[in-house]
Amino acid sequence: MPNTTPQIARKRNVAHKFKIDDHAFIAHGLSTKLWQDLYHYAMTSTWPVFFFAAGVIFLGLNFFFALFYLIGDSPIANLYPNGFWGAFFFSVETLSTVGYGDMHPQTTYGHFVSTFEIFVGMSDIAMVTGVIFARFSLPKSKILFTKHPVTQHHDGKYVLCIRIANARFNVISEASAKLRLIRLESTQEDPRFLRIIDLPLIRDTHPMFVLGWSLFHIIDENSPLYLQTAEDLARSQARLILSLEGVDDTTSQPIRARHVYSHSTIRFNHRYQDINHTGEDMVSHVEYSLFDSIKKEDKPEEKSSTG
Fold it and tell me: Measuring CA to CA, how many Å separate 40 from each of 6, 16, 48, 254?
């Protein structure tokens, strides 16, 4: 008799489609374990999906208990309307622990079912309330990442520059940034090896990140971007990953933000337009409408380190 175990295992495995920023992936061979990760789905789903799922579960439980009430011999007194919908509405009152008092259990069977339903209702309310509070209290940053990293000359050095800003204007204490390059490389064992390389920043910490912050990585002989052209970065499918973390002074909670730049977003020999100016009233103004604006660098490019 043929062994059907591998076929059963294959039926339990599905293809998971997901995206990391703008890059699509399909994972094969992972078993679906929805019940073991419900909290993750509840925390990561959108608000409409979350409330829709909660509503479906609520209605499903009431349909389930309504059918149980109908099995018994008139377990509910003053049932109105008669039949399924009366039992359904009584279940809603019981599950939500409202209990208007007009309809009530009148048999031992009815009391057993309502007792179990009240326990389920109290547990369900506690879990949904906890998840809603966790979603509302989850700290979220509001960091602006420029659309285009640029290479430019800065303080006599050729650098990669990325501009970020705090759009909430609150204080993020001890903010720290990390920049990494991900690209495909060839090794003796693997012709397509995905390597992650740290790109050191001139300053990777900010004591009080409130407005803007320009991050600089020096492109010299020690940089993996040295002598790299736009075509080189495209061939290696290069990406830049910028991670930021700090402590929100308003809530005293840690916050994190991340942005991934494709090689196609990098602009060689450009610089950002200045967004700061001081008016006649000596008040500093920040023009965030120019946050993503870049212009061609005036200084001639250095052949030894440009693309």
Answer: 29, 16, 16, 19
Q: Where are the domains of the chain?
A: 33-137, 143-296
69-73, 191-195, 222-226: the lowest-pLDDT one: 191-195
Report the CATH fold assignment for 33-137: Helix Hairpins (1.10.287)
Helix H or strand E segment including 97: none
Tell me how far apart the alpha carbons of residues 237 and 178 are, in angstroms, rounded to a whole number.
Answer: 20
Q: E strands of the chain, at which residues?
A: 13-20, 23-31, 76-77, 104-105, 143-145, 150-154, 157-166, 172-185, 193-199, 205-209, 212-218, 239-248, 253-262, 270-272, 276-278, 284-286, 294-296
pLDDT digits (tens, 9 = 90+) for 236-290: 999 999 999 999 888 888 889 999 999 999 999 999 988 877 777 777 777 888 8
Q: In whole angstroms, give the CA distance from residue 272 to residue 161.
A: 9
Q: What is the dihedral of CA 166, 168, 173, 177, to 10 degrees?
A: -30
Dihedral of alpha carbons 278, 143, 264, 305, sign: positive
Omega into 81 within 30° of 0, i.e. cis?
yes
Q: Which CATH architecture has domain 143-296?
A: Sandwich (2.60)
Structure-token pair, residue 14: 């599905």
Please report which residue ranges of the chain form alpha helices under DSSP H: 5-12, 38-44, 47-71, 84-95, 108-137, 230-235
CA 226 to each of CA 206, 222, 233: distance values in angstroms, whole numbers, following the listed order:
27, 7, 11
Reduce the DSSP state of residue 152 to 3 states and report it: strand
